[in-house]
Design brief:
8 strands, binds magnesium ion, binds inosinic acid, two-stranded antiparallel sheet, six-stranded mixed β-sheet, alpha/beta
Length: 182
Amino acid sequence: MLSRDAIAKRVAELGAEISRDFSGQSIIFVGVLKGAAIFLSDLARHVPLDATFDFIGVSSYGNRPIAKEDPAGHAAWDSLGEVRLTKDLDQSLADRNVILVEDILDTGLTLNYISKLLRAHQPRSLRIAALLDKPSRRKMPIEAQYVGFTIPDEYVVGYGLDYAERYRNLPDICVLQNPPAL
Ligand code: IMP
Ligand code: MG
């Protein structure tokens, strides 16, 4: 769906945008493990500001098994809406400019949960950078201020995105057709 060259070009643009928006200020990138690790590392290298990193880990309670009657196989990755923290922040975000970095904004349940959690720290500002956005899947009213690509409702892997933990190391973003049952 998206070549490594197209991704690199767009990530550089997002980095330039963030650099302009926070010119003269310091920021903290907060990546959502594990999918955002590759995006964060590329993005941050296009932001020549005073910056630090932190990572947060979350896990959705039980993804539903694939339903045969769902030809698109959506059910395989529909989160049930319960998000659990598996790794907390290492530092306080109080009075910091926070860029929350996520691989993909899908139903919005994950980012809705995480952004509430981060807001409790009372950051100076909180913005979301999502490499991909699938707005047609949204269940929670949440938007990212920095979006790499708006994509249709397809299951994608690569550049950090996984299917059952695999394919994160693909340099391009690819559509996974007929996802096998987990
Ligand atoms: P949300 O809570 O439904 O917005 O889902 C966000 C999380 O679901 C992302 O961080 C991904 O881990 C996962 N996800 C959603 N769509 C895809 C996809 O197409 N490929 C890989 N992971 C996905
Ligand atoms: Mg994931």
